[in-house]
Structures are given as C-alpha cells and as structure tokens.
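Risk register update: the risk of archive-format incompatibility is retired. Evidence:
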Amino acid sequence: MEQIPSTPNSGDSKEKAIDDLCRECGLCCNGVLFHLVRLQSSDLLSELAGLGLKIKRKKGQDQFSQPCPAYQGCQCSIYHQRPTRCRLFECKQLKGVIAGEISEEKAHLQISDVQARVKRVETFLSRLGKTDLSRPLTKRYEKVTAEPADLLDPHQREERVLLEKEMQELQDILDRDFRV
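Archived output:
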C-alpha cells in the first residue's frame, strides 16, 4: 500500500504536522465530510478506474462516491495518482495549522473529538439496522430518518431521537471546523 510520502525536508516540522494530521483524520476520504468527489477534466478517468475508483457520470459530471475505495487503513493507496480534487483539498483544520492559527495539538484534539462523534453516530445507525459501511455517513443517516417514526417501537424512536441530535451536532462541527 502506498503511503503519504515523507516530505523531502524531513526537518520541516510544519510539513510533518500536516502529514500527521491527514494520516490521523481521513474525514475527507471516509465518507464523513463528503458523499462524493467530482472529478476534473484534468483527471485521467481510465487510470483512476484502473486504480479501483468506481466512476459514474451524473448530469454531465464524472464522480465517484465516498467512502473512497482507495482509502485503506487511514492511508491513500493511490496517493501519487489521486484525483485533482483530492490533491487540492485542505480542510479548515489543515488550513488553520498551515496559517499558524491553530496549533497542531488543538487540531489533533478536534479530529479525535469528531472521530468519537462519528463512532457514536455509527453506533446509533447500527442499532437502527444501517450497517453498510460502503455508503457515506450522511446517506446512511438519511435512510434511517426517512423511515416513518410511527412505525418504530418506542426504543427505536428514542434511539432515533438521540441519533438525530448527535448527527446535528456532528454536522455543525464539520461545517464550522472542517468543511471549506
């Protein structure tokens, strides 16, 4: 599996911090931040398809769904051939560390908090029968909340209320601190 490469100047602590944050996080690849990646005209579709991305064309736009099949064990297995959007994306945490507005420690704590929140959401989804981890988090959530609440037993209704609260808090944090 190809890993994010070390920076040429290994003494550069900021570059190391950036690499560490991305390796720890993965929210832009695992279906939490986004449900799809739109490909650019510069992307070589046949090469990306050959690397395992399932490219679909919708409304004249080539794209692939998240979680990314190349994201394995918190590593990008196609790092050097990854799509343009993936090359260019920097979340707010990463931008803040680069700009010196957020300490690396604070960014790590924020990432850990979000990952714990994601686990709680996934626990609720699992309890409500939505365990297909090949689907983005928001799509699994939408499927659960689309089911009429009056068809649920009292325990499931209570679980769904807790899920809705947890998901709203997660989305608020992602919008505020991660999405650009």
